[in-house]
Design a protein that fits this description.
Oligomer: heterodimer
Number of domains of chain A: 1
Mean pLDDT of chain A: 95
CATH superfamily of chain A: Thiamin diphosphate (ThDP)-binding fold, Pyr/PP domains
Low-confidence stretches of chain A: none
Mean pLDDT of chain B: 96
Strand order of the largest sheet of chain A: 1-2-3-7-6
Largest sheet of chain A: 5 strands, parallel
Helix content of chain B: 25-40%
CATH topology of chain A: Rossmann fold
CATH topology of the largest domain in chain B: Rossmann fold
Number of helices of chain A: 10
CATH architecture of the largest domain in chain B: 3-Layer(aba) Sandwich
Radius of gyration of chain B: 19 Å
Distance between the termini of chain A: 25 Å
Structural class of chain A: alpha/beta
Low-confidence stretches of chain B: none
Shape of chain B: globular
Chain lengths: 287, 320
């Protein structure tokens, strides 16, 4: 693994800070779903370290000018994990922290799935497979306009059972879109159970290689590995990059980890919220 | 608007072919649009544009869903993507992508669907789209245009490219007659009067216009005066303008190469019931699938000819 060498570009202090932020974002997810009365905790907690690295370190964007043409784009194709996106958008100053209280309620800018028009949300997400395709269109647009923007997206491991994902995969490989980086949130669970029981998605690496992508596998909760993978993606020429991120659904909250029932949409109870926030806080302090 | 325009039967051109030629013409005037297709350059005639402007065309392979999703993304980079495919695929295979990724965020994507109705003929029901109006009407933020001839098509294409937001434009395979001269001015939502009359209004669109005009001639010989409207904008419709045009005739027959459920007949029915109830009859595909055959043969089998319109007119004027 040359992760270690590449990861030296990030200091221990930076890793610690990003981890703390990711755990702060996790606490916001729990509070948001509790306040909103429903939402998807499990998949938000599995993707949140990746979102933290993207929004707090890697992506070029202006929190006070979300329409700046030169910005990198991120599309959350697994849109049900939007509490994670809203949390990092709030923490980076794109939206106000107080908006999080309105999650899923009538009139709120924070809808149950990402809606275009919410500051920082680049495309609709949540009808599985569609965000991935919209992101591919953005990558084509960036290339056509000779822009330097990088297009990031995240798909779920259950999501890739959708047929259109493979239309998009084939097109990205065909067009050789090297400005297109996708994270596959491999938490191994989907709404009704294990991916491999419901519809086998393995072998993942071989599938994406066969569709003419460059593939890298990482621990999706290890900040230095996420950073290294993005640095690697930036060096790839002539091919899109798939970063298969091995993750834990519900990561960071003991009673949610690897439990399919926490895919969504029931909120934590009062006691569960207290316990979850305590656990997250303990990890954050120990970073 | 051309009030008493008579059709010029010497000029007949299929709308898809006119579409390809007009894309090239407009493409030379403005560089803001690009075309997308899914292995249908020939069938939709977008190939005429691709050959002229290869750098402004993207082929997605036979994958309409990704083409529609990618169009959404391309539009966010300031391009105006025009998605080209057959109407069945535009309005059904890729409909959820259109609904959720294009119409919901109100992105500036244009969708052009060719191969309308049983007029497609020998390819049969898999490729005969009899549902696109019903489906597209139900999607918010969507403008639906269905030109009557090549002159109106060009006017609509210019409107479509100037308008910011999703537009669904219907072309077709069958040659249609020339209805308008070069002075035609398209007004979205307003249905042009193709022929004036006092006893009954026939509202037709696309390939059915020729039959409606023919029916009007037949009925004239019987002493019945028919007004013919071209239902060329299917959403939004200027309801007030429509009522002003039909009120005095007291009854309406609609004629469409589409399922009568949800199409032009339903649009007219909605408006009349709301503002000015009067007898209404619908000519079209009566909630059944098409079949293979020559278009002319099929129009007879499905009760969609000028003679069929006349039968409805004779009946309905007695019910006023």
């Amino acid at each position: 693994m040359n992760n270690i060498l590449e990861a030296e570009r990030i200091t221990t202090a930076e890793i610690k800070e990003l981890r703390q932020k990711a755990y702060g974002a996790r606490a916001r997810v729990l509070q948001m779903v509790y306040d909103g009365g429903s939402g998807h905790c499990g998949g938000s907690l599995s993707i949140i370290d990746i979102l933290s690295v993207l929004y707090f370190r890697e992506m070029k964007y202006r929190p006070d000018d979300t329409e700046w043409a030169g910005r990198d784009r991120f599309v959350l194709s697994k849109g049900h994990a939007c509490p994670a996106l809203y949390a990092v958008l709030a923490m980076s100053g794109v939206i106000e922290e107080r908006e999080l209280k309105g999650f899923r309620s009538a009139g709120s800018m924070l809808q149950g799935h990402p809606e275009f028009g919410t500051p920082g949300v680049e495309a609709v997400g949540g009808s599985l497979g569609q965000g991935f395709s919209t992101a591919l269109g953005m990558a084509l647009g960036a290339r056509l306009s000779k822009g330097a923007q990088r297009i990031f997206t995240a798909v779920g491991d259950g999501e890739i059972q959708e047929g259109m994902v493979w239309e998009t995969a084939m097109a990205a490989g065909h067009f050789g879109l090297d400005n297109f980086t996708c994270f596959l949130d491999r938490n191994k669970l989907q709404g009704d159970g294990k991916t491999e029981d419901l519809m086998m998605v393995e072998p993942l690496r071989d599938k994406w290689l066969a569709f003419n992508w460059e593939v890298r596998e990482i621990d999706g909760h290890d900040i230095s590995e996420i950073v290294a993978a993005i640095e690697w993606a930036r060096t790839v020429k002539g091919r899109p990059q798939m970063i298969i991120a091995n993750t834990v659904k519900g990561k960071g909250v003991s009673f949610m980890e690897n439990v399919a029932a926490w895919h969504g949409t029931a909120p934590p109870t009062d006691d569960e919220l207290v316990q979850a926030l305590a656990e997250l806080n303990a990890v954050s302090e120990g970073c | 608007m051309n009030k008493n325009s008579l059709m010029d039967t010497s000029v007949k051109i299929s709308l898809r072919e006119a579409y390809g030629n007009t894309l090239v013409k407009i493409g030379k005037e403005r560089a803001d649009f690009i075309t997308l297709d899914a292995d249908m350059c020939g069938a939709t005639s977008v190939g005429i544009f691709r050959d002229e402007f290869p750098d402004r065309h993207i082929c997605f392979g036979i994958a309409e869903q990704n083409m529609m999703g990618a169009a959404a993304g391309l539009s966010t980079f300031g391009y105006t993507p025009i998605v080209n495919t057959m109407a069945v695929f535009a309005s059904m295979r890729a409909i959820e992508q259109f609904r959720t990724s294009v119409a919901f965020p109100n992105f500036n994507v244009k969708v052009v669907g060719s191969h309308q109705g049983i007029g497609v003929g020998n390819d049969g029901p898999t490729h005969q789209c009899i549902e696109d109006i019903s489906i597209m009407r139900a999607i918010p933020n969507t403008v639906i245009l269905s030109p009557g001839d090549d002159v109106e098509l060009e006017a609509m294409m210019r409107y479509m490219l100037d308008y910011k937001g999703p537009v669904y434009l219907r072309t077709g395979r069958l040659p249609v007659v020339r209805l308008f001269d070069g002075d035609y001015s398209f007004k979205v939502g307003r249905w042009p009067v193709l022929r004036d009359g006092t006893d009954c209004t026939v509202v037709a669109n696309s390939v059915m216009i020729e039959f409606a005009l023919e029916a009007a001639e037949i009925m004239k010989a019987e002493g019945v005066s028919i007004k013919v409207l071209n239902a060329s904008t299917l959403k939004p419709v200027d309801e007030e303008d429509f009522i002003v045009k039909v009120a005095a005739t007291g009854c309406v027959v609609t004629a469409e190469d589409h399922n009568t459920m949800g199409g032009v007949g339903s649009i007219v029915s909605d408006i009349l019931c709301k503002h000015h109830p009067m007898p209404l009859e619908k000519i079209g595909v009566q909630d059944r699938f098409g079949e293979s055959g020559d278009a002319e043969e099929l129009f007879v089998r499905f009760g969609m000819t000028a003679a069929d319109i006349c039968v409805k007119v004779r009946d309905i004027i007695l019910r006023k």
